[in-house]
């Protein structure tokens, strides 16, 4: 049995797309080496764009975040997925002390990162000895001098990189193994960032404990609203009587429904799709004896994980690369068509045509500059508007807490009631903040949409003017060349109509499969073309982002409530004080914590950047226009230089350009067909 039995097929799909794009690069590199009319200066920008996409596809990782309380078998599950029976430390007691990133490395080693910037490089065995909680060395160290483990030993640690030369990891798969559930503000914020950066969350439960109160609280504050990206793995069935399975399933369904605010029937339908029973201990035994993992639940789990990655993640992630390949193909084919119109002109005729074309090129450049400036201005004004609105609204919310937020009733301040009260307070305050976020969205949304609507109208008008100038250039280049014009027009129009129809179909399917409002909005914006359809596509895509994307602002309101509640009023817990005083002091601490969170400069900057990112689709449109006019100008200048030097066999060059056009079109068709199959 090898780790290849656990296979993430999505990695192969992504590598295949990268290889196809690389073929386009190789074709254009050959054209650049020719140093002819359509050579280095004309194709270099297109090569650079495609290389950025292959680098992105190569650098992209499929990240899986492993969450669960202490001693749920998270490390055992990871060992099974990695096909290594004893790679990560496992034990009867808690082992993982800090978040651990399991990633590819040429050599097996662990790098421990401290919060002060220091790093400690060591072997896997040294790591197990020095940094895992069930290590005898660590236990002795704690006993000898540390009466507070978190404050004296654990707190300075940040995270560890666990680097291994494993094939699965070499294909761009990474795992994040968390230490356990907690409610400290710093760790909750860190977990939120991990969730945002992960393709899927694997939440590990214990069959013998169903869903505990702590797990329910964590689910309601951190996981709720992200269920589609979460796989629940119920482990340790080896220790449970098989006859109890149905009863345990009922209990899990009931408690998950409560925590996630879903119907029990919805939870039951998630079994074998988002919820799985696994036997990690049995699976590790199978690994040791090199037997199949059949019957351990892991094969079924990874099959669904693969389907999720391909159908709901990979489709949207590949779309920018597909769009870039399409843009490059259009640019190359279109500019070659323009060159073929004038390739056989004599020097005097070509000089006259270029003299007539130059003013139109300058107008086109002016349109691009104007749009760049307009987008930049509106992007900055919108982001400032949102940040100012955000600060004002939530500072007002903080100041209104005493009269607006109803604290849960306190019947007793005894120590045994503290946990239940804290859980209820977290739940109520999180819901309160979520409602406030919805209200704020409604208030600022109209203003941002109004700004973008104006921008859409401006772009639509200016793109129309750009296309008019472009057509004027084609008419000039085509003077005295009727036969050539008809032939070229037929060739390019057929290509563009076929390509446009296919990409429109793909775009519709891809948008349906995109996971999450924010991703859907991004793909919607990226699908914008040039021309009349631009406004409609940008409009639709942008509104998706505005309407749903900002519910996931970098502030992380869905879990901020839990972070702010920690420690609230607990200084008074257990003392003989009046309940009313406890309430007043707790509200005051909530107000102070919320005010501090709202005014956090890093979070305000992150929110501003998030709003500015919503204008990426508009910027891509101007970039397409800029690439088009610059490539056209360079190609004509190169041709004129060649004519003056009289060093080109234009019959040979004509065939070279036609072959280049056919090859690029064919390579784009391969990418297009692959994506069509994936997106359907």
Explain the overall architecture.
The chain has 680 residues and is α/β, with parallel strands linked by helices. The protein has 2 domains: 11-58 and 312-679, no CATH class; 61-296, Rossmann fold, CATH 3.40.50.300. It has 24 helices and 9 strands. The protein has helices at 10-34, 40-59, 74-82, 124-131, 136-145, 149-154, 167-170, 185-196, 213-223, 245-260, 264-269, 280-289, 298-342, 347-399, 401-404, 418-477, 482-513, 517-526, 532-548, 557-565, 579-598, 601-613, 616-645, 650-679; strands at 62-68, 100-104, 109-114, 119-122, 157-164, 173-177, 200-206, 230-235, 275-277. Strands 4-3-5-2-6-1-7-8-9 form a 9-stranded mixed beta sheet. It is globular. The chain starts with 9 loop residues before the first helix and ends with a helix. Residues 1-5, 146-151 and 482-559 have low confidence and may be disordered.
Number of strands: 9
User: Sheet bearing the most strands, described?
Assistant: 9 strands, mixed
Given the helix and strand composition, which structural class is it?
alpha/beta
Number of helices: 24
Helix content, binned percent: 55-70%
**CA-atom Rg in angstroms:** 30 Å
How far the N terminus sits from the C terminus, by CA atoms, comes to 34 Å
Given as residue ranges, the uncertain stretches (5+ residues, pLDDT < 50) are: 1-5, 146-151, 482-559
Q: How many individual domains?
A: 2
Strand order of the largest sheet: 4-3-5-2-6-1-7-8-9
């Amino acid at each position: 049995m090898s780790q290849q039995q656990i296979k993430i097929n999505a990695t192969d799909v992504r590598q295949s797309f990268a290889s196809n794009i690389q073929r386009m690069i190789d074709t254009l590199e050959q054209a650049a080496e020719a140093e002819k009319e359509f050579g280095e200066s004309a194709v270099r920008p297109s090569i650079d764009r495609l290389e950025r996409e292959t680098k992105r596809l190569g650098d992209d990782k499929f990240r899986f975040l492993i969450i669960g309380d202490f001693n749920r078998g998270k490390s055992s599950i990871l060992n099974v997925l990695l096909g290594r029976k004893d790679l990560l430390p496992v034990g009867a007691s808690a082992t993982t002390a800090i978040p651990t990133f399991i990633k590819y490395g040429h050599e097996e080693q662990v790098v421990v990162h401290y919060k002060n910037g220091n790093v400690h490089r060591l072997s896997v065995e040294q790591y197990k000895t020095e940094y895992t909680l069930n290590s005898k060395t660590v236990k002795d160290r704690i006993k000898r001098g540390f009466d507070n483990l978190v404050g004296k030993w654990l707190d300075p640690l940040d995270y560890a990189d666990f680097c291994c030369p494993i094939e699965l990891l070499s294909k761009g798969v990474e795992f994040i193994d968390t230490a356990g559930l907690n409610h400290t503000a710093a760790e909750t914020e860190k977990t939120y960032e991990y969730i945002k950066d992960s393709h899927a969350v694997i939440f590990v439960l214990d069959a013998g404990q169903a869903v505990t109160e702590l797990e329910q609280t964590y689910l309601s504050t951190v996981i709720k609203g992200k269920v589609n990206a979460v796989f629940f793995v119920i482990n340790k069935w080896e220790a449970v009587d098989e006859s109890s399975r149905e009863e345990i399933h009922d209990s899990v369904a009931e408690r998950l429904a409560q925590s996630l605010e879903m119907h029990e029937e919805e939870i039951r339908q998630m079994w074998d799709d988002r919820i799985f029973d696994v036997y990690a201990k049995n699976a590790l035994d199978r690994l040791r004896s090199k037997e199949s993992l059949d019957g351990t639940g892991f094969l079924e789990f990874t099959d669904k994980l693969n389907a999720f990655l391909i159908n709901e993640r990979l489709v949207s992630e590949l779309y920018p690369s597909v769009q870039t390949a399409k843009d490059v193909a259009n640019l190359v084919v279109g500019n070659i068509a323009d060159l073929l119109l004038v390739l056989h002109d004599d020097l005097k005729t070509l000089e006259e045509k270029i003299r007539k074309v130059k003013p139109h090129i300058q107008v086109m450049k002016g349109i691009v500059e104007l749009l760049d400036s307009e987008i930049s201005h509106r992007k900055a004004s919108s982001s400032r508007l949102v940040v100012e609105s955000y600060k004002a609204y939530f500072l007002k919310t903080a100041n209104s807490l005493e009269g607006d937020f109803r604290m849960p009733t306190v019947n007793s301040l005894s120590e045994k009631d503290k946990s239940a009260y804290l859980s209820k307070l977290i739940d109520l305050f999180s819901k309160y903040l979520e409602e406030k976020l919805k209200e704020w969205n409604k208030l600022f949304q109209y203003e941002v949409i109004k700004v973008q609507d104006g921008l859409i109208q401006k772009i639509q008008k200016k793109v129309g003017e750009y296309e008019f100038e472009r057509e004027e250039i084609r008419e000039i280049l085509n003077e005295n060349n009727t036969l050539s014009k008809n032939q070229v027009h037929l060739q390019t129009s057929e290509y563009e109509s076929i390509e446009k129809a296919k990409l429109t179909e793909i775009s519709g399917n891809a948008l349906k499969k995109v996971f999450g409002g924010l991703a859907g909005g991004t793909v919607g914006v990226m699908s914008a073309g040039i021309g009349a359809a631009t406004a409609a596509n940008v409009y639709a895509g942008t509104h998706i982002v505005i309407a749903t994307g900002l519910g996931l602002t970098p502030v992380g309101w869905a879990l901020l409530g839990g972070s702010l509640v920690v420690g609230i009023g607990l200084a008074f817990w257990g003392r003989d004080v009046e309940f009313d005083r406890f309430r007043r002091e707790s509200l005051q601490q909530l107000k102070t914590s919320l005010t501090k969170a709202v005014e956090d400069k890093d979070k305000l900057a992150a929110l501003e950047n998030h709003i500015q990112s919503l204008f990426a689709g508009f910027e891509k449109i101007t970039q397409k226009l800029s690439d088009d006019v610059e490539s056209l100008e360079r190609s004509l200048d190169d041709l004129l230089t060649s004519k003056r030097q009289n060093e080109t066999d234009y019959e040979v060059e004509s065939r070279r350009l036609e072959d280049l056009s056919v090859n690029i079109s064919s390579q784009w068709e391969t990418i297009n067909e692959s994506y069509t199959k994936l997106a359907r």
